[in-house]
Amino acid sequence: MADHRLLFSKTGRARYISHLDLMRTFQRAFFRAGIPIKHTEGFNPHAFVSIALPLSVGYSSQCELLEFGLLDGVGEEDVPARMNAALPEGITIHSCYKAEKPIKALTHLNYIITFDYETGVPAGAETALKELLGRDSVVVRKKSKKAKTGFTEVDLIPLIKSWSVEGRRDTLVADVVLAAQNPGLNPELIRAAFCEEYPQFEPGFVSFHRREALDCEGKAFR
Question: How confident is the model at residue 46 (pLDDT cuts 50, 70, 90)?
Fold first, then answer.
């Protein structure tokens, strides 16, 4: 049913829009923009839209992908401007194009994790984060609906394709490429592991930004 994709960013206050609310926002935006798209069948049809690998609330991104079925009447090149006029601040459409690659070909996600320290990065924090990411294994507990205990263990290291860490005056920035799906790795687990292993370096605030979606060759997935 989906034959087109939108590449969009989600920044600013829009970071706090939940996945379900974001879906409703797009459905209403297509209607307000006068863009005819495919709908589900049945007694209560609704606009068919699907967001690949939904973003966690509070995360920002410049590479989100929405799939939908575009009907005749509007050209791909006209969609971004018409949608941007109907969408709230912080959600920006960058391009509209025919979907050719299957979503399963999206294998990795590039995140920027920023650790903020009000009084400057503590001495030793950069070395500690590099040491953690450079280990052969880092096992953490995470919530799981399938496990009887409600938790399961996961080793972070096999799910991290590459990483780099840069210490600045007030921030510690980790540039990481993580497995996207089956299984995927939420960068929040990296923060949790760092704070658990080195509580003395726990930051005042941590932000997560999804910079790029990648295929198995490390190229931008579209």
Answer: confident
